[in-house]
Amino acid sequence: MEPITVIGGGLAGCEAAARIAAAGLPCRLLEMKPHRFSPAHQSEQLAELVCSNSFKSESLTNAHGLLKAEMKLLGSLVLAMAEETRVPAGSALAVDRERFADHMTHAVEQLPGVEIVREEAASIPAAGIVIVATGPLTSAALAQAVRELCHREALSFYDAIAPIVTAESIDQSIAFRASRYDQGGGDYLNCPMTREEYERFYQALLAGRKVPLREFEAPNYFEGCLPIEVMAERGPETLAFGPMKPVGLTDPRTGQRPYAVVQLRQDDLAGTLYSLVGFQTRLAYPEQERIFRMIPGLAHAEFVRLGSVHRNTFIHSPSLLHPDLSLRSDPRLFFAGQITGVEGYLESAAAGIIAGINAGRRALGREPLVLPATTLIGALVRYVTTQREGPFSPMAANFGILDPLAGPGPKHQRKPKLVERSLAHLRSLI
Question: What is the pLDDT of residue 1?
């Protein structure tokens, strides 16, 4: 049997390859690294994480907790490797990004029938079943091939990367260890600010020099990953009620809640690196070091990675894709991951699982798996493949996209019932 081709070795591509292998089918996984790197990638490994190292909450009262539970039922390779490489992060699942990529690469290399081919795909194969899982940083050549195939312009927005500092450079006589409301223990370092410190920091953000965008790069930011300076431009209290909100935290030096807080999350297993939570940015590098060292506890911060902005690309999936993630105009082609308009690490991986399952079913002449929108994965796929009024923009996992429950009921029971229904429906289908 002719191998199924998967283009892209990110989270979605790896999940797709794993599902194809699980079906007992051959697969060719094309990955352009190390011959060519995107602006945000540095490692030769598969499944490199370039933004946060967090896969978000594991609580089933959180949409990302439900998403994880569904993915585990479907045999997620990403979550299996995340468990092996996790680092402390309270109620969230976070990983040592380098060990995670190493484990993912090794796992995919061991998949039966999967051949990893290290070359750039400048075009889409004219024959055979293909999954395009090139992610938000699709190369220019392949992006052009996708545009020509879809007969319309791909959309784009900008995603920003947060800075990382060394743990030993954080002044822990100022920064204190705690999670909000003591949930999950003290897995975060918190840099507290007085009102005066916050206002000085806010003004510096507004005045800081940004990396200019080229004329053709009109930014269309995703609301879930706004650069810190873009949030600041929305008003003086936006940050204090957003990523710098102090609720649930008490400064042990004063016994009071700070006016604002910058949280830092452990970024590696050894606990030597910490990332600034919610501090995605396109500030110029020298400005980042100057302004972020105004944060109490970071006056002498050693930055091992500074923030940056990269261009993301996704197709207009509502007009282009079937509910099984195959292309309406050519059903042998599937799309997976963030290029479909799902937003987030796990959302991307989940789309890879569905595309991999359905590409395998197409090869075997079986009916596709289309999950109901009572499941979170089914609701995400429905969102990106259903036409609606207004512009199409990326969607992350949330309870609001699920089919509503039948009949009235107490508000506090809503999420547990949605979770129970989702997992019951998914178990009945697999």
Answer: 82
Torsion angle of the four alpha carbons 162, 163, 169, 173, in this order, in degrees rounded to the nearest 10: -30
Look at residues 299, 267, 300, 303 and name the one whose alpha carbon lies nearest to residue 283: 303
CB 135 within 8 A of CB 45: no
Q: How many CB atoms lie within 10 A of CB 389?
A: 4
What type of residue sits at position 88?
A: P
Contacts of 119 (CB under 8 A, 6+ apart): 30, 32, 35
Is pLDDT at 215 greater than 60 in this prediction?
no
Q: Are residues 229 and 265 in the same domain?
A: yes
Instruction: Look at residue 37 in the predicted model and tell me its pLDDT.
Output: 64
3-state SS, residue 174: coil
Domain that holds residue 265: 161-311
Instruction: Report the alpha-carbon distance of residue 64 to residue 376 in Å, rounded.
Output: 9
Write down the pTM of the prediction.
0.79
Q: How do strand 188-193 and strand 176-177 relate by DSSP bridges?
A: antiparallel
Place of tokens 């299996």: 80
CATH at 250: 2.40.30.260
Verify that 41 and 117 share a domain, yes or no: yes
- CA 394/CA 360 separation, integer angstroms: 26
pLDDT bracket for residue 216 (50, 70, 90): very low
Last residue of a domain, one of 294, 311, 328: 311
Mean pLDDT of the 342-364 span: 96
> Under a CB-based contact definition with an 8 Å cutoff, are residues 313 and 137 in contact?
yes
Last residue of a domain, one of 311, 329, 350: 311
pLDDT at 310 over 70: no
Q: Is 267 helix (H, G, I), strand (E, B) or coil?
A: coil
All residues at 6 or more sequence positions from 400 whose CB lies less than 8 Å from its CB, including other chains: none
- Please say if the pLDDT value at position 355 is more than 60: yes
> Do residues 81 and 103 touch, judged by C-beta distance below 8 A?
yes
The closest of 315, 310, 360 to 336, measured between CA atoms, is 315
